[in-house]
Amino acid sequence: MKILLTAINAKYIHSNLGIYSLKAYGEKILKEKFGNLEVDCSNNSESLDDLGNSGNLGDLGNFGSLDDLDRADCRNFSDHPVQIELAEYTINQQIGQILQDLYRRKPDIIGFSCYIWNISYVRELLADVKKVLPDVQIWLGGPEVSYDASKTLRENPVVDLVMKGEGEETFAQLLENCVRDGGDPQNWREIDGLAFRNPDGSGVTETKVRSYMDMSQIPFPYECVPEKELEHRIIYYESSRGCPFSCAYCLSSIDKRVRFRGLDLVKKELAWFLETKVPQVKFVDRTFNCRKDHAMEIWRFIRDQDNGITNFHFEIAADLLDEEELELLSTMRPGLVQLEIGVQSTNERTLEAIHRKTDIDQIRQITAKINSWGRIHQHLDLIAGLPWEDLESFRHSFDDVYRMEPEQLQLGFLKVLKGSCMEEMAQECELQYASAPPYEVLSTRWLPYGDVLKLKQIEEMVEVYYNSRQFCLTLKELEKEYDSPYEMFEMLAHYYEKNHLFEVNHSRMARYEILWELLTELFPEKRECFRDLLMCDLYLRENIKSRPSFAPDPGAWKEETRRFFRGEELSPHYLKHYEGYDSRQMARMAHLERMSDGSYRLFDYKKRDPLSKNAGMTQLSKEKLAG
């Protein structure tokens, strides 16, 4: 019997932790119960176009402790060898491509992991799966089906079973049923955490809610995954489940009991990531630092075992960090750690309404301290569409967070998730949201749809001109022309709308050209200043060969460039680490740009900032260059 656990993710660079964990735990239980049962330990996952994503496993798998089974009950298990395979696709692939691959694999059971970003895609695929594989059983799991499992079964007649809640033990008992009884649905009533269609067609049965499991019982999810399949991927990992907070918009608040994986196991598994040199490990723990000793031990370990390559991402509550934790974080290699901090709003009434306990002043102080080290990327999150937040209130929240100077300012929009407290609050908040996933806010009592559209434009401008980190110097200067950061991005959005620029996909170079046209139109007196800053922003990122239309002709300082690099070859001063290269090679590997005041900027691509990845930039006066 072949069981295919399937993830249709958002981006290729992500991995789906849920199906990896189900497979690892399921195979562990099969071996414990039935000895050397024939199981498939290979991954067999697809490499695709754009895969995505995660969330914690309590949200993911939905696929329990097992009663001891007398070995005598297993005497015929060899007649039912079980293979568990994984298949990961992306929402960017054509439905037909995925259908072909599923058909060629010839599974007996397909389990789909369902989220807001893929449920529409999954439903469309389900209708055709049964047409080409009429005998296959279809199982669903994940947060998008877990909280209304019976409704899902009624609306999707091809689905046989929905797994609710935490998944590993439920899935393991289903595997046991497959081995013992060939997957006979008659015995599903004994398995907690299920909703299934009755075999006699009499309706739907829901079994009782499954109790939480011991996280340390789950094997390492990536143990059987070939290292090459993890290349160029973000690897999701969890060291805890549940969340101590009760934020109204979040499903994690439903699971109040925070459980932790044993630290000995965590360290062993992190050591595997470090040895494998995966680019990034993203902890999906909802509030990683909710228990100080747990967080400190992991942070010390990755600092002391740092391989100089792997980056670790943590979602934290910044206002919980104390001096001891901050002292430890300050010792991290630049780029080793990345922190995501959910501010969501700085409106006190809003925070109270969504049951969020946050000390904004404390967050402001702590993020400033972390920024001062120049070692850690900070991602700060805002949510538009929350209760009591109108456009003016959101402006204040935006400006407050922007002035904390995060590397990334994530402007998201409220999503009304099934089973969340926000879903219950919808009527009193006059909250209108999209009928289809991801159930994003359309309007509220305080924020009309027209204002939501304005914020959508602001979001795009923030992504293009701030979060890209491609215009840092130019934006710093542009900020001086406006009373607030929000007003600056509002201006950018207005320019894009007026010139119908939102309707076009722009290249990176086109974004520079657009900004140049805007700046020279609005601030002609600062034309040369902004030209210099745009050129610096361009060359900080890469040694471009194709220059924008507004760039000055480099031939005007061709002789100075030749003389400078010749001097560095003969007697290096600025490029000592280019030993062994001649002047022509140096000129290709570094760049010299003349500014409007006659001074020069030297961009050194062998000396990049470990945090921003920008080239080293040195200012050279006319006199220094001549000397």
Descriptive notes:
- The structure is a single chain.
- The chain is α/β, with parallel strands linked by helices and 627 residues long.
- It has four domains: 2-206, Rossmann fold (3-Layer(aba) Sandwich); 238-459, Alpha-Beta Barrel (TIM Barrel); 468-546; 552-626, no CATH class.
- 38% of the residues lie in helices and 15% in strands.
- Strands 2-1-3-4-5-6-7 form a seven-stranded mixed sheet, with helices on both faces. Strands 8-11-12-13-14-15 form a six-stranded parallel sheet. Strands 18-19-20 form a three-stranded antiparallel sheet.
- The longest helix has 19 residues, at 449-467.
- The chain is globular and about 90 Å long.
Main sheet record: 7 strands, mixed
Share of residues in strands: 15-25%
Count of discrete domains = 4
What is the strand tally?
20
Keywords for this structure?
627 residues, 22 helices, 4 domains, Rossmann fold, single chain, 7-stranded mixed β-sheet, TIM Barrel, alpha/beta
Provide the fold topology:
Layout: E1 2-9, H1 17-34, H2 57-60, E2 83-90, H3 95-105, E3 109-113, H4 119-132, E4 137-141, H5 143-146, H6 149-155, E5 161-163, H7 168-181, E6 194-197, E7 204-206, E8 234-237, E9 240-241, E10 259-260, H8 263-276, E11 280-283, H9 292-304, E12 311-316, H10 323-329, E13 337-344, H11 348-353, H12 360-373, E14 377-384, H13 391-402, E15 408-413, H14 421-425, E16 432-433, E17 441-443, H15 449-467, H16 472-479, H17 485-498, H18 508-522, H19 527-541, H20 558-570, H21 583-589, E18 590-594, E19 600-604, E20 616-620, H22 622-626
Parallel strand pairs: 1-2, 1-3, 3-4, 4-5, 8-11, 11-12, 12-13, 13-14, 14-15
Antiparallel strand pairs: 5-6, 6-7, 9-10, 16-17, 18-19, 19-20
Helix pairs in contact: 1-7, 3-4, 8-9, 15-17, 16-19, 18-19, 20-21
